[in-house]
Amino acid sequence: MNKAYGWTLHLKWIAVLISMMALPAYGQLMIGHMGHSSGDDCNIKTGPIPLNYSVYEKPKGALPPTMAHCKHVPNMGEHFVTVDLQGNKYRVIPIGIRLVLVEGGQNKTIMTKAPEKYTSGTINFGLNFKELGQYNILLETLENGKMTTKVTLPLHVGEGGGHGGHSGIGMLEIGLLLGVGGIAGFFWLRRKSSKDEENTRLLAEAEAKAKAEAEAKAEAEAKAEAEAKAEAEAEAKEAKAEAETKTE
Asked: Is 154 helix (H, G, I), strand (E, B) or coil?
């Protein structure tokens, strides 16, 4: 029973570790975002919706994004955006997202995301920048039958314009290190457990062998004692018979 419980516990931990490593990009961003210390450029402290946000360039391959930006990203291509709403008011109000490219003072809509409630307080979505230039990410809500912009997040794409970004070792990196260490620990414990089980088995076999030998020895001694007793009784009976014969 203890062995079965141990294996169940090991399997539970390995499942947790695998699920951590298999998190989708948005899930990894949610962990990683908590570990990065946003500067004032990445915080909107006043206005209808106080928030902080980060923009991550999608890396090649399966590597998780770690470098966070806010007002400027250096390259075109796919990016992930994480927005953390401060307070509870707008967690229950549907929020729509619109990405616009600023051209000649006009906004050219590039992408829209239908309004929905973000009860967790975190908004995750992807963007694909196909042109260099100045963009605005607009957070909108429905008022009087039309979408109204509540927050404008400016974002410059391309070299120059200042970085407005932040980086560092955060929860994501620490989580991955812990995950690797956890897997190594699992296999070490598994090896140690197997060795302990082998030692226990050998000890049990030795004890069983010693017990069997002791029982066999006791049985042999009892048999020898019984044979000696029977022989003594036979001799006594024979001596008695001889004595009776002489008497006659």
From this structure: strand
